[in-house]
Please model this.
Amino acid sequence: MTLYDLKDGKIATIQSFSGEMELQSRLVEMGIMPGIQIRRIKTAPMNGPIEIKVRDYHVSLRQEDAHYILISE
Amino acid sequence: MKKKLGQHWVALVGNPNCGKTAIFNLLTGLSQKVSNYPGVTVEKKIGKAHFADGDQFDLLDLPGTYSLTPESMDERIVTEQVLNWIHGDNPPSVIVSVVDATNLSRNLYLSTQLTDLGIPIVIALNMMDLVKNDLKIDTKKLVQKLGVEAIIPMSAIKRWGQDELLNAIQSSVKTKNIVNGEFPVFLKDDYVNILQPLKDLLLANFACNDRFATAQSLRLITRNSTVDIYELLIENGFHVDGSFMNDLKEIRQKAVENFEEMGVKHRILEATLRYKWLDSVLSDAKLLVGTNLSEESFSEKVDKVLTHSWSGPFIFIIILYFIFQSIFTWVSAPMEWINSGVGWMGIQVLNIMPPGMLRDLIVEGIIAGVGAILVFLPQILMLMFFMTVLEDSGYMARVAFMMDRFMSKIGLHGRSVLPLMSGYACAIPGIMSTRTIDSWKERLITILVLPLMSCSARLPVYTLMIGAFIPATTVFGFLKLQGLILVVMYFLGTATAFILAKIFSMFIKAKGKSSFVMELPPYRTPLWRSVYRNVYNRGKIFVVNAGKIIMSISIILWFLASFPSEGEASIGKNSIQHSYAGKIGHAIEPIIKPLGFDWKLGIGLITSFAAREVLVSTMATIYNVESDGDGIVELKDAMQNDIDPETGQPIYTPLVALSLMVFFVFAAQCMATFAIVRNETNSWKWPLFMIVYMNSLAYGASLLVYQGGKILGFG
Model:
């Protein structure tokens, strides 16, 4: 499954990034990488970006980017 | 205007939101210089700090960055600076790497990249006041493992550890002990072999050590934009072999292909390996990461309300309403004081000085002109205060989070919200703050539509016109007509900005895909010292820069309006008509007549190209020269009472006022904005485009209002 499918409030572990996702360099530089646990916090108003907690901080991503992040619960 | 750094200087580097600026303010106090817009692409903050024994050094505050690969504009600036230090001359004696102690691993990632540079690193472990007591950081062990000079636990907010940090910097400066260990991250032999040609090329062309060459070759295969940085360095005068750029691209491509054959993801190679090493160092030191993932933080609880699907946007609107309300009501008293202060000064000068040209110049030119502008300093300060508080408290990031969906639909970015809102104060800081938008296309569109947000320089024009010509009546029983018209002006600009953003986004090509990875920092009480500093700096920039332009224009205008004088006798009503200014105004009158503007407003429109608010001081100067009497004429009354000598009708009607305000909503008039757009987009193409599209829009809309209004029988 992908981060897009994860329900708000659930914890999962990142498995890999799919395809030639341009964002992956940025995500890994911020420590969001395979093997790391994340918690999906919420979805922004008007079905906007999603907020996740990773390592010791909170970060937001667009839903279309969340499709590229493969996870396992 | 490049500020030179002294012999011994120290650089401050760190992640966004790590409290870097608070440390900068703590160490430098009042002695800081912020270089500002004309001719400067980078907001460079340099300050002077002192060691305990009184020795002085320069401190440079760099923009926040997550890593040394360039993606956003801020990161490009940092990366370029770092390469300049390594390959050029005058590197910093010490780099202070600021680390947020509540977010260790991600912050230390950048520190470990800095240790490759061969420059002594002192880690300022900031925000120790927020670290829970059970987290014991064994700094001695970490110092050794990370290969840094010192780790200083501190808190800029509580003023802990300031002396310790200064001492650590000083002893590093003195020992000049350059740590030059091995590249700390283990690389497989295969990887080393693939990277070797890239390393060799760098070592042959640039002065740097082996460790840095390894790190840099890894970053070259991470992002293409790292290659572009070298192009920039060469443009800036670094001497390399003629074939260097071609070789670099070729060898890089080869390395990338080799990694792809091996099935290694080269784009995330450096970061993955470095984090694995760093995480193992941290877990050895019992500083485990991500253990409290399910624990609900204070910010998360607050966000249950502030970014909730419906209460979030609702609260945002209330906050916006509150800010605008306070800008227009709270500051009216200080504005009155400034007004009467200026009037008082004029009278003093009139009393003290003998009559003559110099007295006229000072009273009618300088005091009347500059005074008309100083009046809205309180509003700028107020708006800057709110913007800084919202940003420093962490709320602005939430606004971007909530608005991204809407913003991306109209071709903008969640991060466009803050620059666009700053545009209500002044387009210049707004345009500068678009650097935080990673994608070029969204950044460019934000810049292009930003001047449509009614900036505070338009406010004096709106205020003057509304105060003089819009009756203070009530409509629909409860809405004040004057306030309503003002809101309509703001709305008109904002709505047009959104519509045009959508249109531009369909025509401007993307350079790279848009992304939205944005940290939501914990809520914090803003540090009032920092807020004060920021508001003070912005206010100073406004008074000094705008003041310079406005003062010179006021003087030039006074001359143009006072000469050629027709001998001693002909003082009075008609003299300005025959002055140079009058002639210029009359010359353009045919073009602006269809908009309802006379030759006096014509002069105002020309001078307002320097800055919009100059219209008000221009009109003030014109009427003061014309009256040539004692004391300063109240501009509002003068305009209301101005009668067309041919028709006997008032020259300015509510319809003319409306037409003028609409013109000001759309027109591109501020030269400082053009200069900053030129800088930020690196070409004259975009400022020119901006001038053409905005002014066509202004002329068209104003024509529609005036002619339409006349047909409908108003005015």
Notes: The interface with chain B takes residues 11, 17, 22-31, 33-34, 36-39, 41-49, 51, 53-62, 65 of chain A (CB under 8 Å). The longest strand of chain A covers residues 11-17. The CA atoms of residues 8 and 21 of chain A lie 23 Å apart.
